Structure formats: C-alpha cells, structure tokens
Amino acid sequence: IFSLATSYIVTTQTGSKDGAGTDAKVFITLNGDKNKITKFQLHKPEGGKDPFEKGSKDVFKFNDIDVGRVR
C-alpha cells in the first residue's frame, strides 16, 4: 500500500492565440527515480475556475504517491 502523503503543485499556461484552450480532459504523467504516476487527470484548479481557457494560468494541487526526484 502506498501513502498519498506527497503533495504536488502543477501549473499550466494555456496559449493566447485564437483557438487556444480546451474543454477536453487533460492528463499528466510524472516520472520519478522511485515511482511513476500515470494518467493523472487535471480537473480542479485552485480557485475553482474553468481550467484550460485561452490565456489562462491554472494551478493544480494534489496528493499522490512519492515518485522521488522528477525526471
């Protein structure tokens, strides 16, 4: 059993050109020297706003397994 004691902060910046932004599901993978988090969905940014809109900066905070040093 893995502990979800490690906190992560992921910041995204969506472009500002016409057509930038998405309403699609967005996933990340974190590769570390100890472990790997695969297909983690970014869906609830700080502040509760709609993520991945044109020109927006979104900050996602979550806890998951310790991947060690991120590669």
What does this structure look like?
The chain has a two-stranded antiparallel sheet. The protein has a two-stranded antiparallel sheet with strand order 2-3. A hairpin with a 4-residue loop joins β2 and β3 (36-42). It is mainly beta and 71 residues long. It has strands spanning 6-13, 26-31, 36-42, 57-64. It has no helices and four strands.
Write the layout of secondary structure elements.
Layout: E1 6-13, E2 26-31, E3 36-42, E4 57-64
Antiparallel strand pairs: 1-4, 2-3
The low-confidence runs, each spanning 5 or more residues with pLDDT under 50, are none
Total strands: the figure is: 4
**Helical percentage:** under 10%
**Rg estimate, integer Å:** 14 Å
What quaternary form is this? single chain
Largest sheet: 2 strands, antiparallel
Question: Overall pLDDT, averaged?
Answer: 94
SS summary, helix count? 0
The helix/strand order is EEEE
Report the span from N to C terminus.
23 Å
Biggest sheet: strand arrangement:
1-4
Short account of what is shown:
The chain has strands spanning 6-13, 26-31, 36-42, 57-64. The protein is mostly beta strands and 71 residues long. The chain has a two-stranded antiparallel sheet.
Features:
single chain; 71 residues; mainly beta; two-stranded antiparallel sheet; 4 strands
